[in-house]
Amino acid sequence: MEATKVLIVDDEPNIRDLLSTSLRFAGFSVHAVGNGADAVFAAEKGAPDIILLDVMLPDMNGFSITKKLRSMGIDAPVLFLTARDETQDKVTGLTVGGDDYMTKPFSLDEVVARINAILRRTKQSQIEDAILEVGEVRINQDAHEVFVNDEAVDLSPTEYKLLRFLMENANRVLTKAQILDHVWEYDFNGEMGIVESYVSYLRKKLDVLTKEPVIITKRGVGYMFKSTKAN
Amino acid sequence: MEATKVLIVDDEPNIRDLLSTSLRFAGFSVHAVGNGADAVFAAEKGAPDIILLDVMLPDMNGFSITKKLRSMGIDAPVLFLTARDETQDKVTGLTVGGDDYMTKPFSLDEVVARINAILRRTKQSQIEDAILEVGEVRINQDAHEVFVNDEAVDLSPTEYKLLRFLMENANRVLTKAQILDHVWEYDFNGEMGIVESYVSYLRKKLDVLTKEPVIITKRGVGYMFKSTKAN
DNA sequence: CATCAACCTGAGAACTCGCTCAGAAGACAC
DNA sequence: GTGTCTTCTGAGCGAGTTCTCAGGTTGATG
């Protein structure tokens, strides 16, 4: 099977590298460029399956670029990236069809999730499934819904992201540093105690419904989401 | 099969030598440098499979170096090394994809284990297996779980590291000095009596479940993990 | 068989790590 | 604006862990 091709367009090298590494690790084939002109060229040549596009670029804005791409017959969906303070109307009207947008700073795991969500809606060939189920816990990634033994659980956004990351890596110990870097925004500058806090929140909500604890502490190592049954 | 190539970047010659020797013995092809500039050069030339990178170097910090490497298209995973007292935010945001980090002082066996864990997740070709099984005892290195005849055994971090080291060298006598050097942190300053203590702990937990003792004392020499059956 | 060194093990002191709570600050909706 | 939900921090507590030590046991040696 061919790897899904992602085109990254952002003028900040930091963000480009962060995204490239993270997406490559997630199994995508990545190409990154730094301005609008290169983006148009790369999109024509590379035939990407999805484009990550910074709304404000030095040479062109998001609207011009998408207009140009569409006129060239390139209809790959676009995930727009925008700074938090950029006004909403910069984005409004851009996301047609399967497009979506997210504000910087984002968490790396969230980008992967959003890309998969878009591809799920766009492509007929469903490589990634919206349902992630491990043991007694089930997540619907499209609806952001969580069920434990068919009983709905209400989670905050961060709680949800943490649970998803743990479940994606079920039965594998994750260090707090890894969790912090994947689940929290990339410019988060705090202590790892926050991971402990959120694990505590999750357990309080999940463990009352499960037969046995799902998040295991590996003292001195990290945390692990455990499924009793092979999955 | 080609040996996995490791690039070590640390300004302390002591640490460089320690790591070089240990990793070479573990079967890796090693190249070590002492500053950021050399690291970038070596990474480009040598095409390493994994990079061990001290976060604080005289000429560049970890963030600059990874940024530089990623922008050059080098996406080998990085295992960051950092002093325990360095503030957490030096590390935050560094471990993307399959990266991880560990604090100095570390134990040499732990470094090898972490490298293998990263390569296991990163490379699709699974050269190293997460399961280590000798005789009646089985270790899952991803989950840090230990089983004796399919019965779970709960071990402390040090107990776990000691058992893993013994099993990696099954049917080979290890001196207490060797064990101390590999399992304990490299700046450990205590007596060898501690090895005896931990062997005692292990035996207490393991031997009640095995048909015959698994850790044999070779009086005047050291210890040996014994597997009755060839493995 | 007596002696000595090597080894085993239990007890305990000091410490580290993770859990939880309470509260401040911020985001968001109405 | 006002109230609610959420995020994040810091402190205190308790359990688990590390390490040392001392007394008991084992085994080698002459």
How would you characterize this protein structure?
The structure is a homodimer of 231-residue chains. By secondary structure, chain A is of the alpha/beta class. Chain A is built from seven helices and eleven strands. Chain A has helices at 13-25, 36-46, 62-71, 108-122, 157-168, 176-183, 193-206; strands spanning 5-9, 29-33, 50-54, 78-83, 100-104, 131-134, 137-140, 145-148, 151-153, 215-218, 222-225. A five-stranded parallel β-sheet of chain A has the order 2-1-3-4-5, sandwiched between helices. A four-stranded antiparallel β-sheet of chain A has the order 6-7-8-9, with helices on one face. A two-stranded antiparallel ribbon of chain A has the order 10-11. In chain A, strand 7 and strand 8 (145-148) form a beta hairpin. Chain A is elongated. Chain A starts with a strand and ends in a 6-residue tail after the last strand. The model of chain A has no long low-confidence stretch (mean pLDDT 90). The A-B interface holds A 13-14, 16-18, 20-22, 24-26, 108, 171-173, 175, 177-178, 180-182, 186-192, 218-221, 224, 226 and B 66-67, 70-71, 75, 88-89, 91-101, 121-122, 142-144, 156-157.
Structure summarized in a few sentences:
The structure is a homodimer of 231-residue chains. Chain A is an alpha/beta fold and 231 residues long. Chain A has seven helices and eleven strands.
